[in-house]
Amino acid sequence: MNRVVLRSVVGGLVNGRSCNRYISTAVAVARPLESSEFLSRQNGGVLGAVQWRSRMLMSTSSSSGQATSLAEKEQKEEKESTNGNNSVDVSSYWGIQGPKIRREDGTEWPWNCFKPWETYEADLSIDLSKHHVPKTFLDRVAFRTVKSLRVLSDLYFQQRHGCHAMMLETVAAVPGMVGGMLLHLKSLRKFEHSGGWIKALLEEAENERMHLMTVVELVKPAWHERLLVLAVQGVFFNAFFGLYLASPKLAHRVVGYLEEEAVFSYTEYLKDIENGKIENVKAPEIAIDYWRLPKGATLHDVITVIRADEAHHRDVNHFASDIHFQGKQLRDAPAPLGYH
Fold first, then answer.
1. What ranges does the record list as Basic and acidic residues composition bias (predicted)?
2. In a domain, 128, yes or no
């Protein structure tokens, strides 16, 4: 028997067979028997070799099962952690990580859409009665256009001030973005500064958008009102884009009159709250943080600060139109940055 084994080993070395051919990978494939298996077969029959191979397969399957079980456990824990914190941790290959920000009282800052340094206390000393009297032909065109739009909105919304405010803010947030975008492109084309007006107009657009985010917390729009928003935004954006390209001074005058109407609308809103027609509910948390309102702020406080913002936008856009009417460019006058 030993002579047979010796002949087999010597034959393998002479023929240059690789020893790796005889190394088991614990995979059930047909291969030549090793000498140890051959001896086991002779001494204990085929049963010993089969038992040895079965143990190897079971060991491999057990390792694979443990790895799968471990991965499933980690996924389950991650899912439970995500659901518990109501947040999603996004891993980034680029090393980007948001800052951990807290309020002054130590609680975690809950908003991703704005940061504490972007909040402010509204200036309520603004003159609400100011009005630009139409003097030129373009002034009268702007004034009549806005008055016509006001009639249509009043017929549709009537005394539903919340829905009216929602529609108003979806429109009011468009001009600042369009004006800032076109001034940005002009600055790139002509290699000149904008005098800060790009940032001022984008600040206006962002402020108006925050008005909308606040109003939506108070008013849950119906499906037909959402559909109306889509239609109005599509028409107004393209119309104002063309108007600003053709005549920036007319475009800013139109916005100035739109803001005058906004001041009037919010004044009527406040009157109905004071008269008890509309419940003076608690202010949304987003409004309390954005305008730095006291914890006990109410709807009346929120509408008051929004109205003050609209009055500031009124002044800024009438000022911008006056600059153009005097034959100058916006960059010739300093932009009122931070003038909400």
1. 71-81
2. no
